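Possible regression after last week's pipeline update?

I re-ran a chain I had predicted before the update to compare outputs. Posting the input and the new output here so someone can diff against the archived version. Not blocking, just want to make sure nothing changed silently.
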Amino acid sequence: MRALLAEVRLAQERASRGEPAHYAELIVRLMRVAFARNAVVEERIARERETSVEELRRLREDITASAIEAAAPWRRTRLRADLDARFTAARFPFRHDRHVPALIVRGSAGDAGLDPTFRSDAPWPTELKRALVERGYALTDEALARSELKTSHDTAQQ
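New output (post-update):
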């Protein structure tokens, strides 16, 4: 009994310092950190891939245009075909035959989410679940609208 009471006191002290009171809470906090870190890494990889695809497209166009311009007129058709074949055959760790822009939607569950720490087995009402799904749709629609505005603005500048 003394050991149990000592553990409860230690848990209370940890909680008062803002630390996880129990091992299960510690694991939940570590999982949150891991998910947040993985999201940052995935976003960075998506941006890098998008930049790489776009830069490869621009490089292909620039090299092809420069080579065609410098070539004798009777060689241009064959040179364009050779360059297109070489760029098409190039192997990269990402798909480079078309540009698919990344769309990152940031959001949180807000008040509709469940507290991931210790709780009773209270049911999660269907209305809250639906509200959370609707919130996700709304955030995605907003991100798509911003993306389309940016794309149309960038296209207009070119």
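Follow-up from reviewer: compared with the archived run. The chain has a mean pLDDT of 81. Marking as no regression found.
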